[in-house]
Amino acid sequence: QVQLVESGGGLVQPGGSLRLSCAASGSIFSKYTMGWYSQAPGKPRELVASIGSTGSTQVVKSVKGRFTISRDNAKNTVNLQMNSLKPEDTAVYYCQATIGITTYWGQGTQVTVSS
């Protein structure tokens, strides 16, 4: 069982930055593929970025060049650095951990981009 706790969300003006963090329990964190998903009101949850156990990353086209995902296996954390935020980035952001066919989710953290 893995518990994921997100932090770092909040209200930011367009063009601003936020850094989301996800802290994971468990001793095999380094073996998990970690991901950040966003869910805007009335829309399905969608992948934003992911990072594999080897450190390989992928980000969706809409945030490429603005968002960066990273992990610190010594601290059992995965981060999402979000720069040049836009109103359309407003959503609840969820952390996900996957190993094999097993997936765990955090409770989510709200990000609101508004002036």
Helices, strands, pairings?
Layout: E1 4-7, E2 10-12, E3 18-24, E4 33-39, E5 46-51, E6 57-59, E7 67-72, E8 77-82, E9 91-99, E10 102-105, E11 109-113
Parallel strand pairs: 2-11
Antiparallel strand pairs: 1-3, 3-8, 4-5, 4-9, 5-6, 7-8, 9-10, 9-11
Question: How would you describe this protein?
Answer:
There is one protein chain. The protein is an all-beta fold. Helices cover 0% and strands 52% of the residues. The strands form two sheets. Strands 2, 4, 5, 6, 9, 10 and 11 form a seven-stranded mixed sheet that branches. A four-stranded antiparallel sheet has the order 1-3-8-7, with no helix packed on it. Strand 4 (33-39) and strand 5 (46-51) form a beta hairpin.
List keywords for this structure.
115 residues, seven-stranded mixed beta sheet, globular
Q: What radius of gyration results from the CA coordinates?
A: 13 Å
Number of strands: 11
Helix share, percent: under 10%
Residue fraction in strands: over 45%
Q: What value does the average pLDDT take? A: 96
Main sheet record: 7 strands, mixed
Q: Extract low-pLDDT stretches.
A: none
Indicate the multimeric state. single chain
- Write down the secondary-structure element order: EEEEEEEEEEE
| End-to-end C-alpha gap | 40 Å
Quickly count the helices.
0
Morphology call? globular
Estimated structural class: mainly beta
